[in-house]
Amino acid sequence: MIKKLNSRVIFHNRTLYNTYKKLEFGNFDEKNLYKWITRAIEDLKHDAFCGLAIPKDRIPKKYLVDFDAKSIWKYDLPKAYRLIYTIENDNIEVFSIFLEWFDHKKYDKVFKY
């Protein structure tokens, strides 16, 4: 049995967090995306590893360079949206760090599927 690992969920930067908060007051689709990301936050708080790990050889260099990420995880949202995050720890607490989200078409382009 795999042990669930609670984590603290944070956004990579303030701009990404502000973009998330603006979704709450956007159009119908943006409000739905806000709800889905909020659900992801709750899920990841209870299990940092509930997403799918991206194989190391499939991780785009931008995540390794721009975000200094050692691993990348994908959380599937409704309507084929993808939430990309990484997991880090400071020996006391585990952090799920949101890097970005996008629709499936952009996901395929970024990950070259």
Notes on the structure:
With about 110 residues, the protein is an alpha+beta fold. The chain has a single domain (about 10-110), classed as RelE-like (YaeB-like fold), CATH 3.30.2310.20. About 40% of the residues lie in helices and about 25% in strands. The chain has a 5-stranded mixed sheet. A hairpin with a 5-residue loop joins strand 3 and strand 4 (about 80-90). Helix 1 (about 15-25) packs across helix 2. The longest helix has 19 residues, at about 30-45. The N and C termini lie far apart (about 30 Å). The mean pLDDT is about 90.
Class in CATH?
Alpha Beta
Q: Under CATH, the topology is which?
A: YaeB-like fold
How many helices? The count is: 4
Averaged pLDDT = 92
Structural class: alpha+beta
The CATH level-2 architecture is identified as 2-Layer Sandwich
Subunit organisation of the chains: single chain
Shape: globular
CATH superfamily caption: RelE-like
List the helices and strands and how they pair.
Layout: E1 8-11, H1 14-23, H2 28-46, E2 52-53, H3 61-66, E3 73-76, E4 82-89, E5 94-102, H4 104-111
Parallel strand pairs: 1-5
Antiparallel strand pairs: 2-3, 3-4, 4-5
Helix pairs in contact: 1-2
